[in-house]
Write a structure and sequence with these properties.
This protein has one domain. By secondary structure, the chain is an all-alpha fold.
Length: 327
């Protein structure tokens, strides 16, 4: 019943986009571990995101994608730096010192940052179920982190991953206003291009790394560029366009849960009992924070003001099907 409400409220397309994003991004940490066996963090950033940016730019040219309005250019640049430049730089360098499982735990502090910032800005409301679910999620992720190596392993590398999570939450909030005026693919395209430009500084030496890469290394590079770097970001923009950023971000708690078997199959990281236990606690937290009926009133913050201000019925009928206004 609760699941049916979520689908009815936000549409099947949005829900499918959220879960597809989670599934693809669950592969990221294992893929990064595999890629960093050959590529340096700097060369990986340049090669991966140059390829992704060229694909998006080529699509924009072929389809004659409309250009951003002049007043929105700064927001696209900011979104690109937060969601691609800064986020990826912190994540890739941070993951050189932590496991795929630990990185999955740490980077998924992003939903916490997104929710707290949204509440502080007044763009999102909360409830006991939401915060209770967040507490369960954090507890589950903490158990997973202990199973992945313990908090004694937390050091500078882990701090970089936490800062990456903060950067991504700011990216999510920055793109929300853009998604009210642009299609998800347009937002992702211009953000990717803007965010990838700083990686040009890492170009020296990258061609040598590319020519000495094995077929497996090349596959991993292409996979990172096309799926976690390309398709998943488009799906994420579609998700944020269709539901409040804080709600969409809470589904990201599922990433480390799904990432565990992927890391085991791809790079041989074997999860222990505590890690699996933490995964189940995390799933429970996602259910409490996002599916409980009480959350319904918190998902519709834009519906109460029109009644209080007596907006005419004709004005209310002018924008059916628009995304919830949450920042």
């Amino acid at each position: 019943m609760d699941g049916a409400f979520v689908v009815k409220r936000f549409g099947a397309g949005t829900v499918i986009a959220v879960f597809a994003t989670v599934l693809i991004w669950s592969t990221t940490f294992a893929a990064l571990v595999a890629a960093l066996d050959h590529f340096s963090p700097q060369h990986l950033l340049f090669l991966r995101w140059t390829l992704t940016a060229l694909l998006f730019a080529g699509y924009a040219v072929v389809t004659r994608m409309r250009l951003p309005e002049r007043g929105d250019i700064w927001r696209f640049v900011l979104a690109g730096l937060l969601g691609f430049g800064v986020y990826q730089l912190l994540l890739v360098n941070g993951q050189t010192g932590v496991s795929a499982a630990m990185a999955g735990f740490l980077v998924n502090m992003s939903p916490v940052f997104t929710t707290v910032i949204g509440v502080a800005r007044g763009s999102e409301r909360s409830s006991g179920f939401v915060w209770g679910g967040l507490v369960l999620c954090v507890a589950g992720l903490a158990v997973m982190g202990l199973g992945a190596g313990g908090f004694g392993a937390i050091g500078p590398s882990a701090l970089l991953v936490v800062l990456a999570a903060l950067s991504f939450s700011l990216y999510t909030l920055t793109t929300k206003p853009l998604l009210a005026r642009y299609r998800p693919l347009e937002v992702t395209t211009y953000a990717v291009v803007a965010g990838s430009l700083p990686f040009l500084f890492f170009a020296p030496g990258s061609m040598e790394a590319l020519t000495t890469a094995s077929p497996g290394d090349l596959f991993t590079l292409l996979f990172l560029a096309l799926f976690p770097g390309g398709i998943a970001y488009v799906l994420w923009s579609r998700s944020v366009a269709g539901m409040p950023p804080g709600l969409a971000a809470r589904f990201l708690y599922l990433i480390p849960v799904l990432g565990l078997p992927i890391a085991w199959a791809w790079v041989g990281e074997v999860p222990d009992t505590m890690t699996v236990l933490g995964g189940f606690v995390t799933i429970a937290g996602v259910a409490v924070a996002t599916i409980r009926p009480r959350v319904r009133t918190d998902l519709l913050p834009a519906q109460s003001p029109p009644r209080a201000t007596a907006v005419p019925a004709t004005s209310r009928a002018a924008a059916p099907g628009t995304a919830p206004a949450n920042g």
